[in-house]
């Protein structure tokens, strides 16, 4: 009991330490981002028209949960206190106002995260067009909080005049709004797994894209082409890149594009270059933020729509495959009813007829023999029906991928088979720790059927050999199960994965011919393929991949 109490206290202590460390790290990140945004603070009120921390805070809440709000409050409070300390009228009220503005920043991040999770049911609101819409609405609504609290406290403290309140509020709101629209998707998208497949043509097109973007930005945001172009709408030259990126590079590419456009746009506008340059730099930056916000929203929406369309195409393809499989199952079932199920029924009917009319003249041994035949026929029919149901069930199962150890499944299956026939001598070779992303239940069924066949068809060997390994075939990881059993001719290889198709001596080895059909269903559900190589009396090797 004492040990359990100390263990619980230790866990609580570790949890507290983790929260403290997370709070400090988040506070530091927020504070440094705030110092970066502070470069462009303007009078009145030292308000920043570009505020990166708003996007970071919302992204952190979505990624790590509400526990990061402590760090957001601490970082925002320190940043605002440091900013207000530059005023000669800095006092205890300024300290209090700084901490309350920090609370507003935390409340804003909480509101945005809550709205997104409440109405999308996810922490990644970039996968669907509806989710992007909710994200944009959540940002627009939540960023009303911090500007209202902040500018109101500045007004009460005398840091701004009543006439300056509207301009300070709009500047604060626009700065938070646009940075949240740009920075939050960037962090969310790039926090997801990155697939690095460096291929020739995609790399070339990426280089062409980057070169075209750099050249276009130089034309739009500098005086290289035009010496005086404040009113030329050449910023629309950047619109085609939205379509290019949305189609070719997805949400990671779109979030990067928004940042890649905003940085040179802000720098050039601040120095008086580009189509957004005005005599008043702050007005110019606010107009620019409006353009960047619309540019980002259009890009996010278009990318999400394309992603959703592609996912719908994949779902349609899966449903088509499922329908084809279901149709095959129906054909197989019809064949089974008309052929395979009739065979044991005919046997049962024949034996029953013999017993009915010849029972009195039979010896006890003959009666027992016919009863055994009746029982075996009925059991065989039951096994066949179970296999048909298993084939249908596998086709209907929902795929649930997870990281599984195939080596462990193979080892456990062969151990069970050996326990059923401990007298057999079998050499087993298993490659250790073969990990795959697959459905555990389905792979258990598929591997079980293949290993059961290997065990069955090596029964006549003095020393059987069963091996599980991996190979790389055509740049694809391939899983291999081989044995030294009776084998089969390659002329029969294509048909062995069809229901009720059996090769070799079907009388010597019991079976229904459905096991490998079930295996194929499982592999197809994983977007993989399966094939076999064999020779008579030289064993068989089965290869399969998992998509």
- Total number of domains: 4
Overall, the morphology is: elongated
DSSP helix count? Answer: 16
| Number of beta-strand segments | 7
- Strands of the biggest beta sheet: in what spatial order? 2-4-5-7-6
Largest beta-sheet details: 5 strands, mixed
Low-confidence runs: 1-7
Describe this structure in words.
The chain has 547 residues and is α+β, with helices and mostly antiparallel strands. The chain folds into 4 domains: 176 residues, Arp2/3 complex 21 kDa subunit ARPC3, CATH 1.10.1760; 130 residues, no CATH class; 56 residues, no CATH class; 149 residues, Heat Shock Protein 90 (2-Layer Sandwich), CATH 3.30.565. Helices cover 64% and strands 8% of the residues. The protein has 16 helices and 7 strands. Helix 2 packs across helix 4. The two termini are 50 Å apart.
